[in-house]
Write a sequence for this structure.
């Protein structure tokens, strides 16, 4: 019998109970699979999930125990144990995610389910190797029962661009859950799992987290390995975490973070202090913390009710001992133009490998070139096609300097804004995550209008700084996200503020 | 800098995307719509930026020891077409039998 | 078809495969000759989600080569993606270097000008990049077959300045470059095996004109002689075109070694637009100045320096020096033998003569030849002392190839110690004069040219143990007093 109430308990507690055998090792998975049915999260309902592996997960669980002798698991693929050992995660006992189901975005390589990136060009493709983040989750005791829907190759902000259908907002089926990691956000918001992985390039975790009323974290660039994350824009991509609560997300990130020999852009910075704030019930836990409010994230056009929700959050932070200061990040408005040059440029390059020769879709044509063109035009959807063309254009002879090179220069200015503010004594920034709440599906017809959904989030990807969204209230019944940003590799302070704010807001976060 | 239909065709050819004429027409509009928003970058003063690569973290390197990323499936399991261990693709139209010279690629 | 009045301008792009165990960006084996696609992993196959990780040893080798070519190795260099679609390029881009290469500004000296100044060919840059796989077009009807075992193998590309003015210049440059690469031990540098590949950029211009003409590129070259022949042919073709008042079309030409001709590549190249940009999966390559200096200090003596030293230190002829420095192994062997024997000239003669001939017969190389440096040194010393004749020494060398032993002991055992005792020699001479009456009569009658024949006969009779100098002396004396005898 499954106990769906388990899903109301923090991940850390449930994992500890499973590890100590107070709970059956499959208790959390059973609860999630039951909730999956109730939430109707598959293709007939929310369409948040593309593939499930209930059988594989159950047999994996039955073969393991989470006692002291357990390692990466008897049915784990060969090599996984060594790999986990190399990642330094085998030793932690009790396993921090013992028996915890984690939903995985469809662009992260897993062995037993396809990794199709929401694209026809990879339909049915099962990766012969698994991502480092997956190896780390498994080594920590987690199991992976489902792959979630996404905008094709993570290009979109609504999960309407999937080749496998639109994902619906769990609270209002006429609306979008945000994107591109909309499937993962919806599954956590619907109460199916408490933890899910997504990926970020310009806000693809934080924006759907905000829309769906859950916590979403984008770590510092270089904090989490991209090995096994199918690349969209390599200099911006990071794996991110969704959680029901700040602690779920912080714990999830702690497990997947760390330097990786298979990703040259990861940085060897200690992964610690993420969860120090979780039990701090003192009156002034944020004494000495300086919170900046960047004027550029509060434009005239911002819905005044959203502004007042942010004001309320800022008041709480003050009450918790933080100093709240007005600051300026003057190049913020340039983030979207810069992002929509850099990201498509890198995407046009990263997606060149999908050519029908070695894996994935192949559409025959008369000769090699015709095969390439047929495969790629039929395999990629309209948004991906648009961005490949845009990216190819900005890199092509005669346009490189005017577009790509200039965008990379302006990107430095955007990053320098953050450097300057954090050097001035500010620890974290508080902003709205999105300019609006979840919008009606099909309402954004103009591509650039859709791109503007990322106006407050793309800056963190361009600068490489960590950022997260957490629920801070509702507008017309729809969740509003508050965004916290911190300096490079200072996730610890970001989480410290997030824990305190979550505790102070209490039920206000969802009302 | 407005994109023309020929630009779209040229870029599509570089990217090996087969486009219908209808697609070309609509893409001209879409790309110009997007690129119009990029023009503001031309006005930005970038004199304070550096052309030097950011070498803060440098490159980690690995030892020259065989340790391939092991694959849990045969190549045949994911390849569209294989024979005798080779991936097969349609022969380049410029290659008749017995011609092994590579005239479209680059060394 | 005259080339009079035109000058050729050539620049060469040379790719060398670095000798590593694994690939440039993946830990898959870089070995050749295995089953197709067996030495490929997620990175070499360009699987979704795979990322490049740089091989440190490849950078060490590339640095060594660049320093050997006189380049400045930069503390910061950047990898870049070069895009084009081809089925043997799994990612749709090659990871190479573009505007921030590993090294720039070297030179290779290929000789001296008439005024004695050195003839140096500039090296624009040395950069590191990954190789492509192989496409086999004639194995399956209607298909090209792709083998990615070679994909990702580390290469350096060495780009020369357009300083070369003749096919002979190009040949000299390549031979010197190959020798430097071999001396630095970074590559097998074999054109035949494809570990050294040459592309030629060539243009023609009227003598006296400073602007360059339109160039063509010659590819598919597989030998140095092919390079030289193709340059001559392509230059002649360009001159003919120019003389007819037609413009040269910038395009790729292919060398056909079987037919000995240069022809245009069949596919007309579209204007290549490689869309280079910095590889975002790899941070800049940062090398410490002290590390670069260590590599420089650890560099083996380069061919030019070795040649100069061999000439001055050992007093050898240019010809001998050229031969002895052909490879580092041979040069090292020479120096070891010279030290062991104490006489460089004789050591050179032995190595270039007897030893190389023996190696040619046996196969292998000088290092694997069974006669050790010490034994050869002893043998040469024996010869220098006059204890054995050169003929006898060669015989002993032959014995040493089959069995190890002290050369002097072998000489004793085989009766090859030189006999310089006059009475024994005189006895042999008299026997020969009796056995060869006709030659003896003519020799004693004044025909000096027959002395050699008689010396040979005496040597034969002594089984090589006679001291030929003494025999000569005794015979000369004998002929000046023919009646009396000795
Ligand atoms: Mg080249
Ligand atoms: Zn090259």
């Amino acid at each position: 019998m499954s106990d769906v109430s388990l899903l109301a308990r923090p991940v850390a507690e449930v994992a500890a109970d499973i590890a100590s055998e107070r709970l059956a090792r499959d208790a959390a998975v059973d609860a999630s699979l039951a909730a999956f049915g109730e939430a109707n999260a598959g293709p007939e309902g929310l369409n948040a999930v593309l593939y499930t592996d209930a059988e594989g997960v159950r047999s994996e669980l039955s073969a393991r125990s989470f006692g002291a002798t357990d390692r990466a698991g008897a049915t784990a693929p060969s090599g996984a144990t060594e790999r986990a050992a190399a990642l330094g995660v085998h030793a932690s006992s009790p396993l921090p995610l013992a028996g915890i189901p984690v939903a995985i975005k469809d662009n992260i390589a897993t062995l037993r389910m396809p990794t199709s990136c929401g694209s026809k060009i990879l339909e049915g493709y099962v990766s012969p190797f698994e991502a480092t983040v997956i190896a780390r989750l498994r080594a920590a005791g987690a199991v992976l029962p489902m792959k979630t829907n996404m905008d094709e190759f993570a290009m979109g902000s609504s999960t309407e661009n999937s080749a496998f259908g639109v994902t619906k907002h769990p609270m209002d089926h006429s609306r979008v859950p945000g994107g591109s990691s909309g499937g993962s956000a919806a599954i956590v918001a619907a109460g199916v799992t408490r933890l899910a992985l997504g990926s970020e390039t310009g806000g693809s975790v934080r924006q759907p987290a905000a829309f769906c009323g859950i916590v979403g974290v984008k770590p510092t660039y270089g904090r989490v390995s991209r090995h096994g994350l199918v690349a969209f824009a390599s200099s911006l991509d990071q794996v991110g975490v969704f959680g029901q609560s700040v602690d779920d997300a912080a714990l999830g990130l702690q497990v997947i973070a760390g330097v990786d020999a298979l990703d040259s852009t990861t940085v060897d910075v200690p992964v610690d202090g993420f969860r120090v704030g979780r039990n701090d019930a003192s009156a002034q836990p944020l004494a000495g913390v300086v919170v900046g409010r960047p004027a550029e994230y509060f434009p005239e056009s911002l819905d005044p009710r959203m502004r007042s929700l942010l004001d309320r959050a800022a008041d709480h932070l003050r009450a918790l001992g933080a100093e709240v200061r007005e600051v300026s990040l003057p190049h913020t408005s340039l983030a979207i133009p810069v992002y929509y040059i850099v990201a498509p440029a890198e995407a046009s390059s990263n997606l060149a490998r999908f050519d029908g020769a070695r894996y994935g879709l192949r559409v025959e044509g008369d000769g090699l070139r015709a095969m390439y063109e047929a495969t790629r035009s039929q395999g990629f959807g309209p948004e991906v096609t648009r961005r490949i063309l845009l990216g190819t254009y900005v890199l092509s002879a005669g346009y490189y300097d005017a577009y790509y090179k200039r965008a990379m220069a302006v990107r430095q200015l955007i990053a320098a804004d953050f450097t300057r503010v954090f050097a001035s004594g500010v620890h974290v920034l508080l902003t709205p995550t999105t300019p609006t709440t979840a919008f009606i599906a099909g309402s954004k017809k103009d591509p650039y209008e859709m791109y503007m959904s990322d106006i407050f989030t793309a800056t963190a990807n361009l600068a490489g700084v960590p950022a997260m969204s957490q629920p801070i209230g509702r507008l017309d019944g729809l969740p509003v996200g508050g965004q916290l940003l911190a300096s490079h590799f200072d996730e610890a302070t970001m989480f410290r503020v997030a824990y305190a704010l979550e505790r102070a807001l209490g039920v206000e976060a969802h009302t | 800098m407005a994109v023309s239909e020929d630009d779209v065709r040229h870029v599509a050819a570089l990217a090996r995307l087969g486009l219908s004429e209808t697609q070309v027409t609509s893409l001209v509009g879409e790309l110009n719509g997007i690129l119009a928003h990029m023009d503001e970058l031309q006005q930005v003063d970038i004199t304070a930026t550096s052309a030097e690569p950011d070498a803060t973290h440098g490159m980690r390197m690995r030892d020259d020891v065989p340790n391939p990323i092991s694959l849990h499936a045969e190549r045949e399991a994911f390849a569209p077409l294989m024979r005798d261990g080779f991936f097969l693709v349609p022969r380049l139209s410029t290659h008749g039998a017995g011609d092994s010279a590579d005239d479209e690629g680059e060394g | 078809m005259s080339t009079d009045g035109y000058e050729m301008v050539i620049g060469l792009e040379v790719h060398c495969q670095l000798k590593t165990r694994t690939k440039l960006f993946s830990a898959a084996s870089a070995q050749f000759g295995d089953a197709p696609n067996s030495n490929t992993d997620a990175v070499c196959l360009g699987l979704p989600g795979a990322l490049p990780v740089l091989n440190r040893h490849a950078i060490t080798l590339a640095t060594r080569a660049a320093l050997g070519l006189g380049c400045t190795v930069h503390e910061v260099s950047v990898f870049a993606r070069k895009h084009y679609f081809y089925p043997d390029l799994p990612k749709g881009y090659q990871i190479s270097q573009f505007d921030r290469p590993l090294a720039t500004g070297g030179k290779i000296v290929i000789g001296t000008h008439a005024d004695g100044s050195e003839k140096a060919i500039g090296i624009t840059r040395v950069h590191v990049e990954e190789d492509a796989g192989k496409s086999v077009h004639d194995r399956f009807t209607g298909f090209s077959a792709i083998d990615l075992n070679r994909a990702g193998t580390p290469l350096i590309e060495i780009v020369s300045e357009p300083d070369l003015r003749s096919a002979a210049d190009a040949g000299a440059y390549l031979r010197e470059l190959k020798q430097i690469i071999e001396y630095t031990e970074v590559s097998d540098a074999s054109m035949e095996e494809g570990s050294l590949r040459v592309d030629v950029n060539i243009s023609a211009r009227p003598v006296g004109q400073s602007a360059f003409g339109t160039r063509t590129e010659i590819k598919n070259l597989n030998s140095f002689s092919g390079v030289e022949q193709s340059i001559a042919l392509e230059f002649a073709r360009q001159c003919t075109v120019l003389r007819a008042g037609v413009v040269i079309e910038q395009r790729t030409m292919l060398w056909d070694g079987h037919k000995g001709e240069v022809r245009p590549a069949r596919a007309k190249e579209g204007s290549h637009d490689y869309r280079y940009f910095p590889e975002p999966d790899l941070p800049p390559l940062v090398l410490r100045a002290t590390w670069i200096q260590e590599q420089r200090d650890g560099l083996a003596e380069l061919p030019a320096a070795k040649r100069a030293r061999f000439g001055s230190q050992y007093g050898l002829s240019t010809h001998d020096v050229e031969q002895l420095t052909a490879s580092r192994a041979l040069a090292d062997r020479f120096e070891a033998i010279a030290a062991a024997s104490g006489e460089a000239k004789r050591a050179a003669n032995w190595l270039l003569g007897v030893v190389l001939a023996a190696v040619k017969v046996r196969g292998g190389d000088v290092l694997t030849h069974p006669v050790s440096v010490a034994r050869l040194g002893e043998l040469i010393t024996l010869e220098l002392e006059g204890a054995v004749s050169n003929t006898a020494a060669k015989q002993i060398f032959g014995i040493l190839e089959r069995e190890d032993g002290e050369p002097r002991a072998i000489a004793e055992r085989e009766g090859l110690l030189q006999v310089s005792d006059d009475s024994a020699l005189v006895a042999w001479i008299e026997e020969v004069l009796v056995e060869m009456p006709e030659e003896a009569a003519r020799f004693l009658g004044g025909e000096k040219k027959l002395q050699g024949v008689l010396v040979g006969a005496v040597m034969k009779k002594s089984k090589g143990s006679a001291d030929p100098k003494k025999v000569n002396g005794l015979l000369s004396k004998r002929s000046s007093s023919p009646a009396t005898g000795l």
In short: The first helix of chain A runs from residue 11 to 19.
